[in-house]
Amino acid sequence: MSDEVEAAKAAAAAYKSSDVDGITGAGPETAFDNILSGKWPSTKVYEDNTVLAFRDINPQAPVHILVIPKQRDGLVKLSNAREDQEGILGHLMFVAQQVGKKECPEGFRVVINDGEHGAQSVYHLHLHVLGGRQLGWPPG
């Protein structure tokens, strides 16, 4: 089993046991919280009032950028999205395409891992923008 799959299984277990103040699935503190607070450094490529994009510290392609909402507001995984979060979801995709076009003019891929079987290892919704080389198909 790959390190990423093991990390996803551990993250899923932590997520499942992380009810905060009676809110099911609020999610434990993540590395992204530390980046957003400035406790941990990141190489930012885009930032506005609601979204941050930065380079992944463990890139899986020559270009690997993560796009995250600054406020989790329950968005620990895509399958938790509520109807009132449609705007931030669209904005995340819009920022992903802006970053992708700038960083990978020949093309890019946007990936969202959701849950344990989706190999999600950080329970704070995030979009991976991957490119900088010819990507293969099918993934995974």
Describe the structure.
28% of the residues lie in helices and 18% in strands. By secondary structure, it is α+β, with helices and mostly antiparallel strands. The protein has a five-stranded antiparallel beta sheet, covered by helices on one side. A hairpin with a 7-residue loop joins strand 2 (51-55) and strand 3. The radius of gyration is 15 Å and the shape is globular. The relative contact order is 0.20.
Chart the SSEs and their pairings.
Layout: H1 3-16, H2 31-37, E1 44-47, E2 51-55, E3 63-69, H3 86-103, E4 108-111, E5 127-131
Antiparallel strand pairs: 1-2, 2-3, 3-5, 4-5
Ends apart, CA distance between termini: 13 Å
Shape: globular
Major beta sheet, strand line-up: 1-2-3-5-4
Report helical residue fraction.
25-40%
Low-confidence stretches: none
**H/I helix tally:** 3
H-E order: HHEEEHEE
| Average pLDDT metric | 89
- State which percent range the strand residues make up: 15-25%
Radius of gyration (CA) equals 15 Å
Which structural class best describes the helix and strand composition?
alpha+beta
In total, how many beta strands?
5
Q: What about the largest sheet?
A: 5 strands, antiparallel
Could you name the key traits of this structure?
140 residues; alpha+beta; 3 helices
Can you give me a brief rundown of this structure?
This protein is of the alpha+beta class and 140 residues long. It has helices at 3-16, 31-37, 86-103, and strands spanning 44-47, 51-55, 63-69, 108-111, 127-131.
